[in-house]
Design goal:
Layout lengths: L3 H30 L6 E10 L3 E10 L2 E10 L1 E2 L4 E2 L5 E8 H13 L9 E3 L7 E9 L4 E7 L6 H10 L8
Length: 172
C-alpha cells in the first residue's frame, strides 16, 4: 500500500506538466499575433492609373510629429518628355506625434512588413491602377512593394487612411 501515492502522483504530474507546456505555447502564439508598431522615418505611397494622373503621399517623421505631402496631377512633362514630380500640384500639412503613433500602430496592425517584396501584376485587367510603396524604418530597414492591378492584403485600407489625411478642412 505505500506505493499507491506514487501511482497517483505520476499521472497528475504528467498532466500538470502538459498543461504548463500548452499554456506557455498558447501565450507565445498569442504574443506573436499582437501587432507591433511599424515605426518609420519615411513612408512613400505612389498610385498611378490609366487616367495618366498620379498621386503620391510622402510622410516624413519630424522631431514633433510628421510632415505630410500629397503630390497629384499629370506627371508627364510634355516639354521635356519625362516624368516630373516638381510639376505636380501639392498639398502639405503637419501631423502631430499622436498621429504618427496612430499610423505606426495601424501599419503594424495591417502587417505592412509582410508586404516586403510584393511585386505582382494582373495582366487581365485593362485600364486599372498600380502602386509602389517604400517605407524607410527608423532602424534603417526598408520595406518595398509594388503592383499593377494586384494588391497585398489590406492595401486599400492603408490607401484610404492616407487619402483621409487630406479630406478634412485642415488640409492646406
Amino acid at each position: 500500500m505505500p506505493h499507491i501515492p506514487w501511482i497517483i502522483l505520476i499521472p497528475i504530474g504528467i498532466v500538470l506538466a502538459a498543461a504548463i507546456i500548452i499554456l506557455i505555447w498558447w501565450m507565445n502564439k498569442r504574443a506573436k499575433r499582437r501587432p507591433v508598431a511599424l515605426r518609420f522615418a519615411k513612408l512613400v505611397l505612389h498610385e498611378y492609373g490609366s487616367t495618366a494622373e498620379e498621386s503620391e503621399f510622402e510622410l516624413i517623421k519630424t522631431v514633433d510629429g510628421l510632415r505630410i505631402s500629397n503630390y497629384f496631377g499629370n506627371w508627364w512633362d510634355e516639354g521635356k518628355g519625362e516624368h516630373s514630380r516638381k510639376n505636380c500640384l501639392a498639398k502639405r500639412r503637419r501631423g502631430s506625434m499622436e498621429l504618427y503613433n496612430e499610423l505606426t500602430d495601424e501599419l503594424g496592425r495591417l502587417n505592412i512588413a509582410s508586404w516586403n517584396g510584393f511585386n505582382e501584376n494582373d495582366p487581365d485587367v485593362c485600364d486599372g491602377m498600380g502602386f509602389w510603396l517604400e517605407l524607410e524604418l527608423e532602424n534603417g530597414e526598408r520595406i518595398c512593394a509594388s503592383g499593377m492591378n494586384a494588391f497585398p492584403p489590406d492595401y486599400h485600407v492603408l490607401a484610404a487612411k492616407l487619402h483621409s489625411l487630406f479630406e478634412s478642412k485642415n488640409s492646406a
